[in-house]
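Morning. Coffee machine broken again, so started the prediction first thing and wrote up yesterday's gels while waiting. Chain of 169 residues, entered below exactly as on the submission form.
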Amino acid sequence: MKLQSFIISLALAAVCGSARAQEQNPSPWFIQGQMGASYTTGDTGLGKLIAPSGAISVGKYFSPAWGARLSVSGWRGKSASRIGKSAHGFYYGAVTADGLMNISQLVKSYPERLFDVSLIAGIGFNRSFGPGGSTFMGRLGLQGSFRLNEAFDFNIEALANGVSDRRNG
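Came back before lunch.
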């Protein structure tokens, strides 16, 4: 794959805030609701390619440092082609399976830490309801988690999703 195609395929990089509810036991389940913005790399200005995104995820930590989640995400995306360099919008949906590695817990285990940093890596399937059709995807990102109380966290995620170059029309 050409470097340009790879860079363009880092579509839908999202910065999302979420709240996580969890049980207080050694291997908690959690639910995340996310709202944020996505940015698709393309051949036009940055501001023209930002669109809303959202996700709902369910997961489990198998130990303080290792977990997994299943996520359903999507909403609106924007892309631009070389011809005319104008942005056009489309709707999309994605299902991903993510592995979670809590880096803070790997460095020093502490059950009631105020702030944790986790690495996210996953694979999934993305369906566009417009140009580009369906494609498999990979994702990589970081999550910062602020502990609000025993049951809730506030998370900020930065994700890069790699999809087919067909996304830019």
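Residues 1-26 have pLDDT under 50 and may be disordered. Going to sketch it on the whiteboard this afternoon.
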